[in-house]
Amino acid sequence: MAHTTREQAPDSANRPLTATPQDHASAAQESRGCLFALSQPPLMLFLTVIGALLLIAGLHDQFLL
Fold first, then answer.
1. Cβ atoms within 10 Å of 44's Cβ, excluding its own
2. Residue 46: pLDDT above 80?
3. Which terminus, N or C, of the chain has the lesser number of Cβ atoms within 10 Å?
4. DSSP per residue, 1-65
5. Interatomic CA distance for residues 49 and 64, integer angstroms
6. Distances in whole angstroms, Cα of residue 24 to Cα of each of 29, 30, 49, 59
């Protein structure tokens, strides 16, 4: 971000030309994505409770009002 920090961009000659397998492994761990987040138990419990409340409210509105 040379335009905001007023620093010069790194020289492209200092960059490695190919990525090592270790780089791929660390990149795979960092970019797990949304499906990894949905597999977490606290989030799934929260979404289940919210879904159940919406279902109860919908059934109440549909049949009891």
1. 11
2. yes
3. C
4. -HHHH-PPPPPGGGS-SS--HHHHHHHHHH---HHHHHT-HHHHHHHHHHHHHHHHHHHIIIII-
5. 21
6. 9, 10, 38, 49
